[in-house]
Amino acid sequence: MGAEKRLDSIVDQFSDLILSLKMLFPHTDLRFVLDVMIHGLLHPDHKPKLSIEIFYRHGTDLKNKADTLYRLTGYVPTVYASEGRLVIEPMLMLDDVYALARDDDIESLAGSVVCCLDTLLSRRKLLHTYSYNL
Known about the structure:
The protein is α+β, with helices and mostly antiparallel strands. The protein has helices spanning about 1-25, 30-40, 60-75, 95-100, 115-130, and strands at about 50-55, 80, 85-90, 105-115. Strands 2-3-1-4 form a four-stranded antiparallel sheet.
């Protein structure tokens, strides 16, 4: 019974975390946010390379948004005007993703941690080591 109560507690805490993240990152894919958070916990001194796709509301000035993204990240986004989206691959931390997500013109923001070879190998080693300990 003790393990069951702990599991219930973890699920409740995770539910609270998801609700809090949804409030902080509206219109953002929470799997992306969690991936960035996990990367930050596993590699606190490493700024990950991200692949981010942002869809904007119809009528949004994408050139202006691209300029803003460049100023915030230092990376030039690719503009897909007919689809109302920008794609960018900057190196950002969670706070930077939060700053991007605060734009009221965003319909949806999603992405993934594409990172670097060292980090991917470390994750693979961690998972490989974990499977031996099971």
